[in-house]
Structures are given as structure tokens and as C-alpha cells.
């Protein structure tokens, strides 16, 4: 592989690795309304937000950071009232209790309208804010922070060139690579070019430490208590499960600390890193080896997400990031290229069926499952225990397996996604 390809791959990882305060979908909703309001100001009359199915689903039940509130309406209202669009996915980091009271009043007065764009598979948010001074509009597409259109009173004041974005996105196409390429990037890129990943280690570790106090569903705290009570044994598996659970508990519980996201998801970022950090801690593995293994975890996650889509009917944090994590763990523990392929096949055969029912406390359970399965799959692969080729969705090559994982989500689970969405929408009626 050329040095140019190495650099393009690392640039893509840098773009994907973004700090996110709270679940990325409510943050993106708040970003859209904050930006729409910013162009007009004044007293709000109405806020209307049209969003794709995945954004609606993931924001439906999750906590808003720094508050005890949940949901898409609250995210939209707070974006207008207190959002700082220049902060990207940290748009709501300065929300106060007074802001929450104002948002509740705005919702009570019927000023917030949330609609779902059915059939949309890519990220899409269209926010229109009407005030006594005019009407502002902001549209986000494809990525949670990718604002492609801003209007004031129906007149375009900013529009992103779709053609240049498309050519930029195609500059590095990870789907054209094979697993060996991903491993080569992780193993051979100069360390000074990838040690920025240490920031993900720091950020996600801080969130885990916060969650250890017991927020959200308290899955991590519960596992720790079960160890102390003798129901579980403290080992690498349970340590990584609790550590991962702490962070997702904190994030889904509304703790005002960011997660380092990957592929537009904080939970993806946590699952792709924390099991590896836990193992490196217990086994005293050198920092550089950890960083290179996390990079491989990211790359495998990105590869699968290319085929699955940003938001899907299956749980991407468990399946895509969990598979990435397992590949990284195998690398971290000295696995060779063939064994890293084995662990991906093991994950595909084991964990692919987990559904996504939006961002909520249940994400902690899914993340803990992903952590434990990732470690077990990697340890078995290191013993050359693996699912044979052409078994179920396991392909003839590991690349085919990863592509098949993605296809299970899209187009495979479109009907499943419709049913999940219907259940959630009917709850609003």
C-alpha cells in the first residue's frame, strides 16, 4: 500500500472521531434548530423538524445531557433556546435548569412539531424555526454535523456543493480495501500520525469513571456489585463488561461529559475502544500497541458501516463496533491476520441479530453483550476456533462476511425497522 493511501485512511479516521455530548441524534436535532434560529433570532412562534427514521428512533427515548429530560421535542426546543451551533455535537453543553423550564413551556404551548420522513435510509434533518423576526431553516444530511443548507425567509444564504462533497467522500473508499489492508494501515502507519487516538482513550475513560458512580440503568455498577457479592468472578471478561457498561450508562443517563464517537455514534466509539482499554490495563500492554489495535477496531467498524449505513435496524454499536472491537482485541493480544479474520467470522455468526430500538437505557445491555462477545470471539480465534467459511452469513472471504453483516441491516432489515418505528410512533399517539 502507498503512503498516500495510509494518509487518506488516517484522515478519514480523524474525520470520524468526533467528541459527542450525549447521544448524537438529539445533538444533531439541537444543532439543526440552533442553526436555523441563529439566522433570524427573536421570539419563537413555531419549530418544525422533519427527520429520517433513524434519527427519530435514536432520539426518541434517550436522555438530554445535563438534564433529566428525554426525547426529540426537548432536543429541538433546547437547540433553539440554548444551543451553540459553533460547538457541533456539543451544542447543548451549557444548558441550564432555566433553559429546560423554557423548553418545557415551549413544548406545552405546542410550538414544537416533530415529523418522520419514512423510507429515508441516510441521515436527514430539516429544521424550520419561525419567529417574530422571520423564518430560519437548516438542513443536515449524511453526517450528524453536515449542514448542507441554510435559509433565511426562504432565501438561500448557504449551500454546500454536493458534487465537491461527493468527490471528497470518494477520495478514500474503505469498501475497496481488504482486511489485510486495514491491518497494514493499523500496524505500519508511523505512530506519530496515529497517536491522536490517545484522546479517544482519555475521553472515553473519563466517561467510564463518571459512570462508575452509577448513572442511567447502572448496568456497569450492577456487574461490579455482582462480582463483590460473589455471583460473578472478576476476570478480563467481567472487568471489560463493567468498564464498558459504566460509560454507556453515563452517556445514556445524561452525564455532561462527551464520548469520542466513531461513524457518527458515541456508543460505537465506546464499544470500539473500551474493551481494548480494559484488556490493555489488566495485561499492561504498551500504549502504542493499544493505539494501533484501536485503529484497527475503528477501521473494521467503518468498513462494516459502509455497507450497513449510518443508522439501521440492527444495533450498530453491538454489531459493527463490537466486531471492530473484537478484531482489535485479537490484534492487541498478538493474533495474526488469519486469526483476526477468524474473530470477525465468529462475531458475524454470534451477534448479528441484535436490533436497534433507539437510544435508551437498553443500550448499556447491548454494549455489555458486545464487549463480552468481542473478547470471547477473539480468545477463541487465538486458539484457531472459528466458524467455517460459507456457514450462514459467514462468507467465503472475511471481506464478504463483513459485507454480509452490513447487508443484514440494509436492505435485509428494512421491514423490521418499519415495525420498530411503528411501535414507537404509536406510543406518541
From TrEMBL:
Q: Which SUPFAM superfamilies match?
A: 2-methylcitrate dehydratase PrpD
InterPro entries for the chain: MmgE/PrpD_sf (IPR036148), Ser_deHydtase-like_asu (IPR005130), UPF0597 (IPR021144)
Q: Name one GO biological process term.
A: L-cysteine catabolic process to pyruvate
Listed Pfam families: SDH_alpha
Which GO molecular function terms does the record list? L-cysteine desulfhydrase activity
Q: Can you tell me which family this protein belongs to?
A: Belongs to the UPF0597 family.
PANTHER family linked to this entry? UPF0597 PROTEIN YHAM (PTHR30501)
According to UniProt, the name of this protein is UPF0597 protein TSYNT_6127
Look up and give the organism this protein is from. Answer: Tepidanaerobacter syntrophicus
Amino acid at each position: 500500500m502507498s503512503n498516500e493511501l495510509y494518509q487518506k485512511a488516517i484522515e478519514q479516521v480523524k474525520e470520524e472521531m468526533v467528541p459527542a455530548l450525549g447521544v448524537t441524534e438529539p445533538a444533531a436535532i439541537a444543532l439543526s434548530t440552533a442553526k436555523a434560529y441563529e439566522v433570524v433570532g427573536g421570539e419563537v412562534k413555531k419549530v418544525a423538524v422533519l427527520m429520517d427514521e433513524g434519527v427519530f428512533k435514536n432520539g426518541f427515548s434517550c436522555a438530554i445531557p445535563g438534564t433529566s429530560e428525554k426525547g426529540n421535542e426537548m432536543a429541538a426546543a433546547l437547540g433553539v433556546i440554548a444551543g451553540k451551533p459553533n460547538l457541533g455535537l456539543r451544542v447543548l453543553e451549557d444548558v441550564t435548569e432555566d433553559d429546560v423550564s423554557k423548553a418545557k413551556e415551549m413544548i406545552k404551548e405546542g410550538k414544537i412539531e416533530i415529523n418522520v420522513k419514512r423510507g429515508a435510509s441516510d441521515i436527514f434533518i430539516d429544521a424550520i424555526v419561525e419567529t417574530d423576526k422571520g423564518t430560519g431553516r437548516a438542513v443536515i444530511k449524511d453526517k450528524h454535523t453536515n449542514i448542507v443548507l441554510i435559509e433565511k425567509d426562504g432565501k438561500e444564504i448557504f449551500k454546500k456543493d454536493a458534487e465537491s462533497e461527493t468527490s471528497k467522500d470518494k477520495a478514500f473508499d474503505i469498501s475497496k480495501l481488504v482486511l489485510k489492508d486495514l491491518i497494514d494501515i493499523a500496524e505500519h502507519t508511523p505512530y506519530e500520525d496515529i497517536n491522536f487516538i490517545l484522546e479517544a482513550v482519555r475521553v472515553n475513560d473519563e466517561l467510564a469513571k463518571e459512570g462508575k458512580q452509577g448513572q442511567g440503568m447502572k448496568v456497569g455498577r450492577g456487574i461490579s456489585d455482582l462480582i463483590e457479592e460473589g455471583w460473578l468472578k472478576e476476570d478480563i471478561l467481567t472487568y471489560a463488561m463493567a468498564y464498558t457498561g459504566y460509560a454507556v450508562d453515563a452517556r445514556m443517563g445524561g452525564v455532561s461529559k462527551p464520548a469520542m464517537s466513531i461513524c457518527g455514534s458515541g456508543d460505537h466509539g465506546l464499544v470500539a475502544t473500551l474493551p481494548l482499554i480494559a484488556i490493555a490495563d489488566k495485561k499492561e500492554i504498551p500504549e502504542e500497541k493499544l493505539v494501533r489495535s484501536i485503529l484497527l477496531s475503528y477501521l473494521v467498524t467503518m468498513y462494516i458501516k459502509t455497507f450497513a449505513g449510518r443508522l439501521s435496524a440492527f444495533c450498530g454499536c453491538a454489531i459493527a463496533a463490537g466486531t471492530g472491537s473484537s478484531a482489535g482485541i485479537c490484534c492487541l493480544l498478538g493474533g495474526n491476520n488469519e486469526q483476526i479474520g477468524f474473530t470477525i467470522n465468529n462475531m458475524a455468526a454470534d451477534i448479528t441479530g441484535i436490533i436497534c430500538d433507539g437510544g435508551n437505557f437498553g443500550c448499556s445491555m447491548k454494549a455489555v453483550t458486545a464487549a463480552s462477545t468481542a473478547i470471547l470471539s477473539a480468545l477463541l480465534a487465538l486458539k484457531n476456533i472459528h466458524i467455517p467459511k460459507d456457514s450462514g452469513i459467514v462468507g467465503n472471504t472475511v471481506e464478504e462476511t463483513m459485507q454480509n453483516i452490513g447487508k443484514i441491516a440494509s436492505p435485509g432489515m428494512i421491514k423490521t425497522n418499519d415495525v420498530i418505528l411503528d411501535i414507537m410512533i404509536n406510543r406518541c399517539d
